[in-house]
Every structure is written in C-alpha cells, then in structure tokens.
Amino acid sequence: MKGKRLKNVQKTLLFYKLHFGIDAPYRLLVDGTLCNTAYSNHINLAEQIPKLFQAHVRIFTTKCAISEVEGLQARFGVSRGTSLSILHQFPVIPCHHPLAGNVKDCFSSKYKYNTQDTDKNKFCVGTQDQELREHARKSGGVPIFTLKSRVPCVEPPSDYSKSLAEKQTVAKAVPEHSKKVIAGIKRDQGAVESGEIVKKRKRKGPNPLSQLKKKRKTLPNSPKTDGKKARKRKRHHGDSKQEDISTLIKNLT
Q1: 3 state DSSP class of 36
Q2: Phi then psi for 182, rounded to 5 degrees?
C-alpha cells in the first residue's frame, strides 16, 4: 500500500511539473492546523514530507499563521505551545499585510502565481483547514499536502486544475497561424469578442455582368442581313443530268 501511495504522489507531482512548472526543490507553506495534527499523531513533518515527495522540500510558514495559533491560545486558553514550537522550526516568509490577516488570504497571495507563466516562486500548501484547501482547489495549480488518518499524502489534482491543464495543452498544440484563421472565422460568423458584437458580413450575390447572355460573333466578310433570314439557293441536280444525256446522244448520231 505504501508503494502504491508513493506512486500516486509522484504521478500527481509530475502533473504539476508538466502543466504548471512546479518542480523540486518544492516550496511548502504550512499553517498551525497541520502542525497541531502532526503533534497529536507524533509525526515529524521535517522528516516525513521529503520522504513522501522523494525530493528536496523547503518548508515555510508566515507571520499570519503564527499569529493565528497565538490568537487561539489567548482566546480559548488552550495550550498551543507544542504546535507553535513546531511552526517556529520553519523559516518565516514576509507577508505584505497586517498580522491580523486571514491565513487563507495570506497563503493565497503566495500561490496565486502558480497558474501564471512567471519566474516568481510557486508554492505548495500544507494544511488541515477545509476552507483553505477548498480555496486552493478552486484556484488551480496548487499541490495540497495533508494528513489523513495519520498518513501523509498529497491530494490528486482538482477538476479545475485539470481543466486549466487541458486548456494549456490545446493552446500549445494550435500554432499561431491557425489561431489567426480561427479568429477570422469567428469574426466572419459574428462571434462576440471583448464584449462587442461583430457584424456579420453580408453574402454577396453573383456578378451581374456574368449573368448577361453571350453575343454571337459575326465574321468580318459575312453579308449583312439586316435582321432578315438569308435565302438558301436550291440546286436542281436532276435537270442538269438530263441535258448532259441529250447532248451525248446528239453527238453520237
């Protein structure tokens, strides 16, 4: 079962590598919910995550994630020192918003570049928060690390990530010349572009000059008839033969 799980994880990571350019060394953002679950199940995140990814993984957190755990400790009087100590093991990435910011908004500001063709860093997310995981699924292109029944795993790509990958594949397969041709066809058919309706071109009829009847050409030496039919000459071949015969008999006599 362990070998099958690792195989599925590698298949998922290969998907993100091919379609979104997310490759090792991976950059993983973790929050307090993941650290608390890891502590409760005696899981060492710094050791188990690289084994699962089978690659070098750089684990980070943010000030917003740390302040969230500290706020829970002060609000409910629950000792969060253990999960907080795990969170403090990882480097803190600066976030450009107040410390009271939501962890979901903080993390989404980091992984929003995953679906873009940019040189900026792309992040994976490690969390047990259902709201944050759902937001990452809908954003697309975000590998999600979580703990299920004390087992570390990486979620399969979401449906939205698959649809984005399919669009990118089609866009790369169609050459630029074909794109221009397709755009021209859509424009001729009155397709909507940028909110404006392009008027459809009217279909032109046949050339009126091509519908005229062709005039017959007259020979230069042909006599003019002035619209009257020319009379045909009748030849009487029978009379000429009789005359020839009578002359021949006279000559013989």
Answers
A1: helix
A2: -65, -40
